[in-house]
Specification:
Shape: elongated
Strand order of the largest sheet: 1-4-5-6-7-8-9-12
Number of helices: 3
Distance between the termini: 90 Å
Structural class: alpha+beta
Helix content: 10-25%
Number of strands: 12
């Protein structure tokens, strides 16, 4: 019995050994699957982070320009000399109709939400005929420049439409050129034809300027949207020259009459195009 069972036992041992080897071989493949799953998970996680970062917005240098319509309230100056010899105030609504500011901005999005930069505007002004600044029959040209720093907060930097609010200060420079012919009284009842040529510069601080608007994304780098602004300022310094060319007498220069400060508010509304190249 013992000698007959030995080959059988050897066969069983061999079968058992082959079975264990086969089982071990069958259990090896899951390890690469685990590695593949881990790699896929990592890739998905990286893609999720990239999407999340894209949704948060972008940073980098930014340039913008807007075309606007503007108007003002308040005073160019107060306590100026009137034609009758008394004191009179020059209101913005009496001297100007509307203006057409072209506003440029250059700055940096330090984070997707915060922008720091400078703004500047050039605006031709449509003047009104009045006795103080633009007499009947005179040619009157008025332009204004404004410039200053600004900080802006973007509410939804990663969205297709991103509203924002900005706060700035600045400097205002208003230049006027008034030229025309009049009759100058040189003695009681005696008037002489005179050509008047006046250049005036009023300047002062923009005390505060608030902007509201929104960027509608057109492409990765370009956006367009509405913008409105409201500012308060004051013309504190007036300089200039006035030349009188009196018939039969000749040309003479005279100083501008003194005036007091003109406190005012300026408003603009327009369409803005912004470019964020990076």
């Amino acid at each position: 019995m013992t000698s007959m069972n030995a080959p059988f036992r050897w066969t069983l041992s061999l079968a058992a050994a082959l079975g264990l080897a086969t089982s071990a071989g069958a259990q090896e493949p899951p390890e690469p699957q685990t590695e593949t799953t881990t790699t896929t998970s990592t890739t998905t996680s990286s893609e999720g982070m990239s999407t999340s970062q894209a949704e948060m917005g972008r940073v980098g240098p930014q340039f913008a320009v807007s075309g606007n319509v503007g108007f003002g309230l308040g005073y160019v100056y107060t306590n100026g000399q009137s034609p009758g010899g008394g004191l009179e105030d020059l209101k913005i609504t009496d001297s100007a109709k509307i203006s057409f500011p072209i506003i440029a901005e250059l700055g940096f999005r330090v984070t997707p939400r915060f922008y720091l930069g400078v703004w500047g505007s050039w605006e031709p002004v449509l003047t009104k005929t009045n006795e103080l600044s633009c007499p009947e029959g005179f040619q009157c040209d008025t332009f204004q420049w404004r410039v200053g720093p600004e900080v802006r907060y973007h509410i939804r930097p990663g969205a297709s439409f991103d509203p924002y609010i900005g706060l700035g200060v600045g400097l205002e420079i208003l230049k006027s050129h008034v030229e025309g012919d009049t009759q100058l009284q040189v003695a009681p009842g005696v008037f002489v034809p005179t050509h008047v040529d006046t250049h005036v510069t009023d300047r002062g601080p923009t005390i505060a300027r608030v902007t509201l608007g929104g960027d509608l994304r057109v492409s990765r780098s370009l956006s367009v949207g509405p913008i409105i602004s409201a500012s308060v300022g004051q013309y504190t310094v007036r300089t200039g020259t006035q030349t009188l060319d009196i018939t039969g007498v000749g040309s003479r220069d005279q100083e501008l009459a003194p005036v007091d400060d003109g406190f005012h508010a300026l408003f603009t509304a327009g369409i803005r195009i912004a470019f964020l190249p990076l």
